[in-house]
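Hi L., both proteins are below.
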Amino acid sequence: MARLLIVSNRLPISVRVDRGALSLTRSSGGLAAAMRGPHERHCAVWIGWPGSVASLSPEQRQDADAALAGMRAVPVHLGAAEQHRFYDGFSNGVLWPLFHYLLDKVNLDAELDWEAYQRVNEHFADVVAAQYTPGDAIWVHDYQLLLLPALLRRRLPGARIGFFLHVPFPSAEVFRILPWREQIVRGLLGADLIGFHTAGFRRNFAASAAHVLGVEPGEAAIEHDGRAVALGVHPISIDAAEIERLAGHPGVREEAARIRAEARGRKIVLGIDRLDYTKGIPRRLLAIERFLEREPELRDHVRFLQLAVPTRESAGAYADFRRLVHEMVGRINGKYGTTYATPIHYMHRSLPFEQVVALYLAADVMLVTPLRDGMNLVAKEYAAARIDDDGALILSEFAGASSELAEAISVNPYDIGSVAAAVKQAIAMPLAEQRLRMTALRRRVATHDVHTWAQTFLDDLDRAAPAAPAVAPPSRRGMPESVVESVRRAPQRVWILDYDGTLVPFAPVPDLAAPDEELLALLRALSERDRVHVVSGRRRADIERWLGALPLHLHAEHGFWSRPKASDDWVALEPDAAAWKGEVRKILEDVTRRTPGTFIEEKTVTLAWHYRTAEPELASQHVRELCARLEARIPMDALELLAGAKVIEVRPRGVHKGRVVPLILDDAPARAAVIAIGDDRTDEDIFAALPPSAC
């Protein structure tokens, strides 16, 4: 039976030794809560780190692994030093601040941490591959495992692999400062589906992939390595029904009433956050200070409650941050407190979720002002808990939730004046307006809950990569071993090879794509026994200059020109018909003037517009414009547009690489193995013209 393999940095179960006895504790929040449903409904296996087991004896560790197996959990054991470099060093010292735009906190000289990050991702890949059976779906989670999809693709080429990013993906300009940007983009593109919270995060990733790898910046999918990688928007949510149930529980409502009674009629403005620098607590405190300064008549009528949940307590930077927040709270309370009232009630601890829901019920205003956040479920939890349809939500425009929760009061968390004004607006909001806004918020959160989120992602993964029977594993040569063996045993071989992107990497300028000595030696050795045809879109002068001294059959300009192995003469397949070029050239020149980094290449019977070195987003926009203009102005019955790798080419109909295939096959020895290798759409014409027996 096909299963779901859930893979995350941490298991939702922690392993500890308590007074000599083994203890396994389930986590209650975050990803554990989001994935509880899929774990139960899909007979899923959860793979992740169970916490440090250094204090466990070998027998206890064996018992722990057996107990985890009974809970359908598989541990990935890590050494303490490696886990520290992987998690604290690279994941949270490099990726976390970078993805949240806090560039002054990014450690860009973390080579040893990067090496640990790679090793841990490899270790995860080994454990997942050992658990995998054909037909299983693999769902990888979050920024700690960005390399894992590609590592799994290498080990399990036929697997269905989904990846979901729970944090923001930054703009291409920010992401590109990362020294390891290419490895990370390639790692993610090993998935069949990459999920993001918002369309903006998806656009950022597509733009980053375009800049870093030169792929076309598709909105819903990216073509990479012969595969289409789907990009999805899947905003995570909460178990709204469970929160509503808790909000109606008598004990929770009694606790909420007690909190309100302690406020003595004051309006309660609530903040609940992990004590993390991305959550914007210092600027929120400055906004509260600004409110107290501006509104002296309201000081005795408002109580600010801030719950700061401890996180990453071992990190020195977080200890400094905690000290800063505590000092700010003390300073503001000292400035505006009285003998009978303290404006900010600050709690630095974790609370049971029932008490959190009681706080949601008690609060008149929810203040959610992260500097940057992937989603922020606190905002959604507050809406779900407001079963009386009252209350006001103030939400940072830089939280992913802001794209969904339009009825909240939107603020820029960096603008403390506007946040202070929003607090005043919220506490003065008429009940009718509160109910109008909150009813819409609660309806949306209830409709798009965490169960819908998970099922929608899995449905999209099935569409992106339908379950398929296992295929032959690839050899080190990149093709199934059975095909390699068939080619090896053939008495004679005919090779049909593309040039750019196949024999040589793409170059920013065509003249820089000359072959190196290693490639020339390889082609010379190959041609001693086999027939080798190079079929290129290049001008014949380029192909002649680079490969003319080798004993090869050469075909230039998509097969319009051919030069047999034993000849120095090029032969045209048909007379030149270039009367159309003048009008097309004018259009290409106009677009080139407006698109820096592009240029026109003229061949015998074609015109090509290259945009490899142009800014990807602008080039993508102008490609659409260019194609529309050309299709409106040129005779499409006689000419056609060809979209290649960062190039648009106009050519007469019938001029394509596939035209040379019949000539090659007519001259091929009987029983010869025919192998064609290409990399882009122009090579599809070759493949279409080949017999079914070709490779």
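That was the first. Here is the second:
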Amino acid sequence: MPPNEQIRDICEFESSQDAAAVDESKISEEERAKQAKIQADIKAYEELVAMPFYKRPDIKWFNLYFMVMLHLGALYGFLTFPYFEKKATTVFSIFMICLANFGVAGGIHRLWAHRSYKAKLPLRVILMIAYLSSGQYSPLYWSRDHRVHHKFSETDADPVNAARGFWFSHVGWLTMKRHPEVVRKGKMVDVSDILADPVVQIGEKYFELWRLLFAFIIPTLICVYGWNETWYYAILSQAFMRYAFSLNCTWSINSFAHLIGGHPYDKFIMPAENLVMSFFTGGEGWHNYHHTFPWDYKTSEFGNYSLNYTTILLDLFAKIGWAYDMKQPSKTLIENVIKNRGDGTHEISRKAEKAH
């Protein structure tokens, strides 16, 4: 266990001891039992990992089969779809991918998970619908997991731990039971502010229905009744091709953007600057910056709109008053962090080096 986690656990233990005012020996016994259980859970998990793949009981086989079938269907679609003959469906699919990206990047990520800005009701509704169109899991679940990811990045408590390799961080984490530390640390993360939002409450209460409607049924019906698309191509494009592509856009932030790219802001962390991922995710690929300044609503450097249409849209909503209290670090703070922790590739670092 890292030193900072040991300190945190000790502080939690001491504060609970003072508050409860119970017998010291009893608390010590309870604490020993708690630590023993944690170690037993971790040991059991390590034994599972050592087993042959096909024998492992920690594999979520339904999820694995679903992912395989989804991607086989999507691959077949990508290879056989008549893109130029079905121009309306092609353009609409691209629009739906961009809409989902905006819901994930601007909504569930920057608004609800990070609270990097505030949004009025109309914008929150738009963002929730856009997020639901991505077909990912519940708003509360996503936000909580992301807070855990930032707090315990690249440790056993990280749900998408990139230190476990590309495939685990990309999609493997969805097909396996969670590490005991993910479950334990997840309970420590406060999500009361997310639950206080009535838009999230409604999204959570009827989540499965909303996801089915906005991610699959409505897009398919729009294709069929909007421009007389065949049911075959409508379903293939929306339920397989567009859905799989959209999922992989988000997953790529956990994998590619943690494993490939430079570290101009903080060379001591894994998240990296990845221009390609920014293109496919609406501006989420500037990941070294984001993990260094997670409260910045732009998730990219000062005044930088490079491949970041999510920030452009949020700024437009800010102009009409629907988005406000946009948080961002000062230019001075950014420059100081670059000079002290960057890998030397940033222009500011190079100028500072020349000055010396």
